[in-house]
């Protein structure tokens, strides 16, 4: 057998990753694996449950931190690009109209939260007046 025939045969035996990749099958496998792990953790000791919860919480926090940084970078870059385009003359931003719109939204938010502020103020006042009772009850 010639060396080129062996190479061709070997290339034919190795499937391409794009041909055999089935997204639905992979999603089902991942779902079943996660369900299996969660069911298994529920049957383990409290220490293992605590470790699993801590590790999964850390991983979730780490991923959210990275996503948050990416989102902040994207929003910041967009603001910088708009400002650069404005100063270069590519676009014209009507700052007076934008300011009026932001003020209207701020007023709506303030109006919707004013009722909640009064309820919170009553709770804070109650806590300040009864701080000794609260301290005694917490012991």
From TrEMBL:
GO annotation, biological process: autophagy of mitochondrion
InterPro entries: FUN14 (IPR007014)
GO cellular-component term (any): mitochondrial outer membrane
Membrane-topology annotation of the record: Multi-pass membrane protein
Presence of the UniProt keyword Lipoprotein in the record: no
Pfam families documented for this protein: FUN14
Main location: mitochondrion
Superkingdom of origin: Eukaryota
Residue segments, region Disordered: 1-21
Compartmental location: Mitochondrion outer membrane
Statement: the UniProt record of this protein carries the keyword Membrane: yes
Signal sequence extent: none
Keyword field: Membrane, Transmembrane, Transmembrane helix
Family that this chain belongs to: Belongs to the FUN14 family.
Protein name in UniProt: FUN14 domain-containing protein 1
């Amino acid at each position: 057998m010639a060396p080129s025939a062996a190479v061709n045969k070997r290339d034919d035996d190795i499937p391409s990753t794009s041909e055999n990749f089935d997204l639905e099958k992979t999603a089902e496998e991942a779902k079943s694996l996660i369900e299996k792990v969660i069911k298994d953790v529920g049957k383990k000791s409290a220490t293992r449950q605590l470790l699993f919860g801590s590790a999964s919480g850390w991983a979730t926090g780490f991923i959210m931190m990275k996503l948050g940084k990416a989102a902040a970078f994207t929003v910041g870059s967009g603001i910088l690009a708009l400002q650069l385009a404005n100063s270069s003359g590519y676009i014209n931003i009507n700052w007076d109209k934008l300011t009026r719109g932001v003020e209207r939204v701020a007023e709506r938010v303030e109006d919707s939260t004013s009722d909640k502020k009064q309820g919170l103020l009553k709770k804070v006042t109650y806590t300040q007046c009864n701080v000794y009772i609260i301290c005694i009850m917490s012991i």
